[in-house]
Amino acid sequence: MTFEPRDNFYFIFYIEKNNKFWVIPSKDIVKLGIRNKSGKNIGKISLSLPKTETGNKVQKFQKYINDSGFNLLRQYGQTADNSG
Q: Is 52 within the bounds of a domain?
């Protein structure tokens, strides 16, 4: 992925196998992903979401799953509405 992270930019992923949505702010994608250092995708960010319901990786991504992730969007919307 190539993008400019900012406060109002969210990624929404859907994994059919798990029937789960992942809503992740772009600034968090930069922190959680891996920046490619070589090859044709140099400088791009790779992100690997958990494929199972257990393990350390799931704990790391827990706040972005389904309603928790969509709540991040709602909270941002409320903050943005109050700032203007």
A: yes
The reply to whether the predicted model has a pTM over 0.85 is no
User: Within a domain: residue 2?
Assistant: no
- The whole domain housing 63 covers 10-83
Report d(CA 80, CA 21) in Å as an integer: 23
How far is residue 36's CA from residue 43's CA, in Å, rounded to a whole number?
5
Digit-coded pLDDT (tens) for 12-51: 999 998 899 999 999 999 999 999 999 999 999 999 998 8
Beta carbons of 17 and 7 less than 8 angstroms apart:
no
- Is residue 4 a part of any domain in this protein? no
The CA angle 84-25-67, to the nearest 5 degrees, is 95
Interacting residues of 50 by C-beta distance below 8 A, sequence separation 6+: 57, 58, 61
Domain count within the chain: 1
Reading the block at residue 75, the tokens are 């909270």
